[in-house]
Automatic annotation (TrEMBL):
InterPro entries: DUF6593. It comes from the Eukaryota. This is DUF6593 domain-containing protein. Residues 50-189 form the DUF6593 domain. The lineage of its organism: Eukaryota, Fungi, Dikarya, Basidiomycota, Agaricomycotina. It comes from Pleurotus ostreatus (strain PC15) (Oyster mushroom).
């Protein structure tokens, strides 16, 4: 029987991993200070036919959120919780807009997830803290920009599986109620649409 090679299989290496030079990003295979039990995984799955319509499974393997783009209204993408309540809205237009109920007022995505000056990462500001979403090997990692209030506990990571996208959040990020905002940002970074 033929088996596909898992491109992420190399992360299970026994060799010692070294931290990134920035210190704000987790190790590719997890941090020695953060076991997998301290990370909560949100899995984008059941693409219909793609991430524009999918289910996000929570850490307990039950549906946490749904992303819905109605073909009759393709200029809107809704994020609904498990109780079918609207959590966030994307308006697809020349300069797309994003809104996360109670957390982020409606604004242009390019302002909220702005490109860094070197165009290699995106910056996001939430509740007075700035974060940087940066490619790191096969993942996109996020952590607070270096500042006096820097905390390693706020790290997040996006990785791709064969038929899923996985957002891993530290327990601090979940306790700080950053999971819905992080899910919306993950969607925007992975949807393949122009967000500027």
């Amino acid at each position: 029987m033929y088996r596909f090679n898992n491109p992420f299989d190399g992360w299970k290496s026994d060799r010692q991993q070294t931290p990134s030079i920035y210190g704000a990003l987790p190790y590719p295979g997890g941090s020695p200070n953060a076991s997998s039990s301290t990370l909560s995984s949100f899995t984008f799955t059941a693409f219909n036919p793609n991430i524009m319509n999918c289910t996000i499974m929570g850490p307990d393997s039950t549906p946490h959120m749904y992303i819905v783009t109605d073909p009759a209204m393709p200029t809107y993408t809704l994020f609904k919780n498990a109780n079918n309540q609207n959590i966030a809205l994307i308006e697809w237009q020349q300069h797309p807009l994003v809104e996360v109920r109670g957390k982020l007022v409606k604004q242009e995505i390019r302002q909220w997830l702005s490109l860094s000056s070197d165009r290699k990462s995106r910056r996001m500001r939430v509740s007075g803290t700035s974060y940087s979403w940066s490619p790191y090997g096969e993942t996109i990692n996020v952590g607070p920009l270096l500042s006096p209030s820097y905390s390693k506990r706020s790290t997040r990571r996006i990785s791709r599986g064969r038929e899923s996208i996985i957002l891993e959040l530290s327990s601090h990020a979940v306790q700080s109620d950053l999971h819905d905002i992080s899910i919306v940002a993950t969607f925007l970074l992975q949807c393949g649409r122009n967000i500027d």
